[in-house]
Amino acid sequence: GTDARLRISRIPPARPVGSLMDDVRQGLLAPPRRLPAKYFYDERGAKLFEDICATQDYYPSRCEAQLLETHGAALMQAMDARHLIELGSGSSRKTRHLLQHAAPGTIYWPFDVSEEMLRSSAAGLVAEWSGLQVHGLVGDYHAGLDLPIPDEGRRSVLFLGGTLGNFRPEQAEVFLGEIRGLLRAGDTLLLGADRVKAPGVLERAYDDREGVTAAFNLNVLRVLNRELDADFDLDGFSHRAVYNTEAERIEMYLESQREQAVRIGRLDQTLQFTAGERIRTELSHKYSEASLTALLEPAGFRIEQLLTTPEPTAYSLVLAR
Ligand code: AVJ
Asked: What would the DSSP string read from start to end of 165-197?
């Protein structure tokens, strides 16, 4: 039955990872104000991200889905994996283009912080494919990749959506090293990476005309209000997305619309914002073939396939071994 093929485990942090309180203390109390992007993803934020993927303007997930659909069979054959481990699996919707080519006995390990989304997508997958086992992992991959994968069988790590881009290059290299620690000779990494392109296309993708990205960005203030007993007025801040050409990255900000004070109850602190003052909420790096190689090679990966959608919305899937 489906129950025997579905398990969910909680993954405790393998190492201490800064709490929201620590990160707010470190990043928000004084300018330049910034917050780690991972706090977007409470249940509401995870759903808003799914909605972003359905907008006209946010091309990466559509491009990635198209690459997975077109090349899914060949990728699965090249990976030849018994264990498919997906970091930040979300709804697993795009991964279906791979899973539909899975050999019987394949085990899919979706790893995500959003338990509700993980449970419902895992249930859907085992119901649809009788040859598939799903072992969902609930946790934060920033706290390490010490995962209960059995020794037996080839592995492939899937890190899709371009999420590696949220790390600064030096952190990305460390994280790729951790991924490599999960893999043995012959195992693979399938990485989604958004490409450097015209700033206008990028800025539109991160400030979509339906306003979903704006709602997603502002949602982090709701997270702070709830978790830290803060009193951010969501109408007092607006969404900004700027492409930094030098650093080859989108930077998202929340900009204070006026001079205002914000109380953070659990820190017993009051923040003073000037009009126009910004909080940086996300970095999303864009890659060239050269920068991808420069990131992957020192981590011990060799690029085996580089699949890219056409301009103006270039997006790549990298199969590395
Ligand atoms: C899920 C991190 C890949 O950076 O494109 C989408 C998140 N932020 N729109 C990205 C996001 C604004 C997304 N990642």
From this structure: GGS-HHHHHHHHHHHHHH--TT-EEEEEEEBP-
Nearest CA to ligand 1 atom 2: 163
Show the ligand 1 pocket: residues with CB < 6 angstroms: 52, 60, 161-163, 165-166, 206, 213, 282, 284
Question: Atom 4 in ligand 1: which residue has the minimum CA distance?
Answer: 284
In this structure, are residues 41 and 169 in contact, taking their beta carbons and an 8 Å threshold? no
- For residues 92 and 211, what is the distance between their CA atoms, to the nearest angstrom? 24
ipTM metric: 0.98
Residues of the chain with pLDDT under 50: none
Average predicted confidence (pLDDT) for the chain: 96
Ligand 1 centroid – CA 292 distance (Å):
18
Bridge partner residues of 135 (DSSP): 7
Distance 284 CA to ligand 1 centre (A): 7
Is pTM beyond 0.90? Reply is yes
* Amino acid occupying residue 48: L
CA of 32 to the centre of ligand 1 (A): 22
pLDDT digits (tens, 9 = 90+) for 38-90: 999 998 999 999 999 999 999 999 999 999 999 999 999 999 999 999 999 99
Max Cα separation, the chain?
A: 60
- Find out whether 86 and 111 touch, Cβ atoms under 8 Å: yes
pLDDT of residue 10: 97
